[in-house]
């Protein structure tokens, strides 16, 4: 029998097919239904239904001999593991009225022969791996009520022939690769309840003809590439309760006529290019639950009429160009759970009436121009979990009523003009996970029990005027992931006030008045990416335990009172990108292991008491962009390997050391370097001619050395100051304040060479002339003597 043969081809037939045995009637098998059919004088029972959804069937549908089951009217094999092609033999089932093969792994093309199943009312092929085009022959299935081919890989245009399926009630062709324009013929499907074409690559305008689909409840054309305005004809669809047009290229304004769609509960138009104001008529949509218009180019103010839509759960108008104040009428929306108005140009104050919306879970007003103080009534929002007021111009103090926000999880009020103390009531916020108050003018002590709930993950109060000790609850706040207290006036011993934080990724305590030693507890924070302790009063050595922070990318310990040597162990931090140990009291050499810092981009160890020679291994840090080792006690020569740092582009500063010897020619390979400071050392010889090829160089300071010879001409040094070159032994060049180079030692050498050649000739000629004169005198006297005789 055909069904038993098919079962035999399946991989591990599921338990639900265990009743399929040869010695029993198929009509008694699980998932099989039979009907008596008159055949002459007999009425045999024949298989009419196969219904095994979610049965765990693994095999190919092509192994089932459909021609042996001519009376099949219903097939439901959804959510199994059928694979292979959709067999054309299925088209022999002339009585078939429902075919549901959705949620399988079928692949290949949809057979065009399927258009011959004239009795078909339901065709469900969704969530398969089907490819190719939707066959135009499906337009012959005029009895069809449901056509669903979504979540596949079919491509090409939607056939215009689909417009012949006048009995269609549901058309779902979403989340595939369909392209081209939406056929105008879809306007003929006047019985349609749901039209879902979202998640394709459809383009062109929304057809006006869709306005004829008067029975439509849901229209989802989102996530395509549709353009043009929203057609006015859509406002004829008075039964519609869901309109999804988001993530397209729709232009123009929102038609005021949308206010006629009285049954609409979801209006979702976000991420388009919609312009113009929000029509006040939207306030007529009394059944609306969600109004989502974010990320468009909407202008104008928020209509007070939105306060009439008392069923609203979500208002999202963010990332537009909305101006004006927040209407106090929004306080009437007692069912509202999410109010998103961020990234606009909203001005004015926060209306206290928002405190009436006690069901509100998220209030997002950040990135506007809101002024005034925070209303105390916000503290009435007992269900509020997310409060984002950051990046505005809000002033005044934080209300003590915030201590009643027991469900708050994230509070971001940074980048405002807030002042005053942080209410001690913040210690009651036991569910707080994120607290960001940076860049305000808040003062006073931080609440001691700020981490009373032990769930705080992000604490950012940087750039305020907080003073006093580190809150005691932070020591046991092991949930911390990010802590940023930079630029305050906090005091205390960092080895005593901070604990063990296994999830910590960022610790920034810079620019405070903290003292003590760097705690060995930091070794437990193995997820740490950035450690900033700069500009404090921290003492003692750099602990070797920091070498356990294998994920560390930024280490800033500058401007403290650290002493001892740079531990070689920290050179094992291969992800380290910024290392700043400047302006401490460190001594000893640079570890030769520094070559292991393969990711290093910025190194600053200036302003210490480091000594010894500069290791040639430093030349292995080829990603370095800025290198500052000035103001130390380094001696010896500058290694030629520094010329290997091809990425060095910001600054190379070795000034104010005891370096000597000649400058290496290899420095000329630093073609991207902008600032080079070699001043206040004991370099001798000439400036390498290779410096002329340093095309990015804008500052070259070689003052206070023993250099001589010409200064190479670099294009960007044309406006150089003489102070960059003086005093030195004998530099010259075409720069203001330097002597010209014709009297340079090189010129003198050439002149000496010429004189060396001419001198013997002059001496010989002089001798000959003198001898000739002597001979002439002798002969003259001799001749006179003969005349006397």
From TrEMBL:
Q: How does it sit in the membrane?
A: Single-pass membrane protein
Q: What is this protein called?
A: Leucine-rich repeat-containing N-terminal plant-type domain-containing protein
The record's Gene Ontology cellular component field reads: membrane
Keyword Translocase belongs to the record: no
User: Where in the cell is the protein located?
Assistant: Membrane
Where exactly are the transmembrane stretches of this chain?
Answer: 754-779
Q: Does the keyword Lipid biosynthesis apply?
A: no
Query: What keywords tag this UniProt record?
Result: Glycoprotein, Leucine-rich repeat, Membrane, Repeat, Signal, Transmembrane, Transmembrane helix
């Amino acid at each position: 029998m055909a069904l038993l043969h098919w079962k035999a081809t399946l991989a591990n037939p599921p338990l639900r097919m265990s009743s399929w045995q040869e010695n029993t009637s198929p009509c008694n098998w699980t998932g099989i239904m039979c009907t008596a059919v008159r055949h002459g004088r007999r009425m045999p029972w024949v298989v009419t239904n196969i219904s095994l959804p979610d049965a765990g069937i693994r095999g190919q549908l092509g192994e089932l001999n459909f021609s042996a089951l001519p009376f099949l009217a219903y097939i439901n094999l959804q959510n199994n593991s059928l694979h292979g092609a959709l067999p054309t033999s299925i088209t022999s089932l002339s009585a078939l009225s429902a075919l549901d093969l959705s949620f399988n792994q079928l692949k290949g093309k949809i057979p065009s022969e399927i258009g011959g199943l004239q009795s078909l009312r339901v065709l469900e092929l969704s969530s398969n791996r089907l490819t190719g085009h939707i066959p135009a022959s499906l337009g012959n299935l005029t009895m069809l009520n449901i056509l669903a081919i979504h979540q596949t890989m079919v491509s090409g245009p939607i056939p215009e022939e689909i417009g012949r399926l006048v009995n269609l009630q549901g058309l779902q062709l979403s989340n595939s690769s369909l392209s081209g324009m939406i056929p105008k013929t879809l306007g003929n499907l006047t019985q349609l309840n749901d039209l879902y074409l979202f998640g394709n690559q459809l383009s062109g305008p929304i057809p006006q003809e869709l306005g004829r689909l008067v029975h439509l409840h849901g229209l989802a054309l989102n996530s395509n590439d549709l353009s043009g305005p929203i057609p006015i004809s859509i406002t004829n669809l008075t039964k519609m309760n869901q309109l999804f047009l988001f993530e397209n290229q729709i232009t123009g304004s929102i038609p005021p006529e949308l206010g006629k769609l009285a049954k609409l509960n979801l209006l979702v138009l976000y991420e388009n290019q919609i312009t113009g104001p929000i029509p006040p008529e939207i306030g007529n949509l009394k059944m609306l639950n969600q109004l989502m218009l974010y990320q468009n180019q909407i202008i104008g103010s928020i209509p007070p009429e939105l306060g009439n839509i008392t069923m609203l759960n979500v208002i999202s108008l963010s990332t537009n160009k909305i101006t004006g104040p927040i209407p106090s009428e929004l306080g009437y929306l007692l069912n509202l759970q999410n109010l998103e108005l961020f990234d606009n140009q909203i001005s004015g104050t926060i209306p206290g009436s928002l405190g009436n919306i006690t069901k509100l879970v998220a209030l997002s007003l950040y990135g506007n121009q809101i002024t005034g103080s925070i209303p105390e009534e916000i503290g009435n929002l007992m269900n509020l979990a997310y409060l984002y007021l950051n990046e505005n111009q809000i002033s005044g103090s934080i209300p003590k009523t915030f201590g009643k926000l027991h469900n708050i999880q994230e509070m971001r009020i940074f980048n405002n003009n807030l002042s005053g103390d942080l209410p001690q009531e913040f210690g009651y916020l036991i569910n707080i996970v994120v607290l960001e108050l940076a860049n305000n003018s808040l003062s006073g002590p931080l609440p001691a029990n700020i981490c009373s709930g032990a769930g705080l993950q992000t604490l950012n109060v940087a750039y305020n005027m907080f003073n006093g000790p580190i809150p005691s609850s932070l020591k046991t706040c092991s949930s911390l992931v990010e802590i940023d207290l930079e630029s305050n006036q906090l005091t205390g011993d960092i080895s005593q006030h901070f604990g063990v934080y296994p999830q910590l990724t960022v610790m920034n305590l810079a620019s405070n008045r903290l003292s003590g030693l760097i705690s060995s507890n930091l070794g437990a924070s193995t997820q740490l990416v950035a450690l900033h302790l700069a500009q404090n009063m921290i003492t003692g050595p750099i602990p070797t335990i920091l070498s356990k922070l294998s994920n560390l990318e930024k280490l800033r310990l500058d401007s403290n009172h650290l002493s001892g040597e740079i531990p070689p162990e920290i050179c094992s931090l291969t992800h380290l990108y910024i290392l700043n140990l400047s302006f401490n009291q460190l001594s000893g050499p640079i570890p030769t292991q520094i070559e292991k810092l393969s990711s290093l981009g910025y190194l600053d160890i200036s302003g210490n008491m480091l000594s010894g020679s500069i290791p040639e291994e430093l030349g292995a840090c080829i990603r370095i962009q800025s290198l500052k080792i000035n103001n130390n006690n380094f001696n010896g020569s500058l290694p030629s390997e520094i010329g290997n740092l091809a990425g060095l582009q910001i600054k190379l500063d070795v000034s104010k050391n005891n370096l000597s010897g000649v400058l290496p020619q290899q420095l000329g390979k630093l073609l991207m370097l902008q600032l080079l400071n070699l001043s206040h050392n004991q370099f001798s010889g000439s400036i390498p001619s290779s410096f002329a090829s340093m095309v990015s160089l804008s500052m070259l300071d070689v003052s206070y050395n023993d250099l001589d010879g010409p200064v190479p001409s670099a294009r960007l040094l044309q406006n150089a100051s003489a102070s960059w070159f003086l005093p030195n032994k004998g530099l010259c060049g075409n720069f203001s304040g330097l002597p010209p180079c014709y009297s340079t030692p090189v010129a003198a050498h050439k002149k000496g060479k010429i004189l060396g050649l001419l001198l013997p000739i002059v001496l010989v000629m002089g001798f000959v002339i003198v001898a000739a004169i002597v001979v002439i005198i002798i002969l003259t006297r001799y001749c006179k003597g003969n005349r006397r005789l």
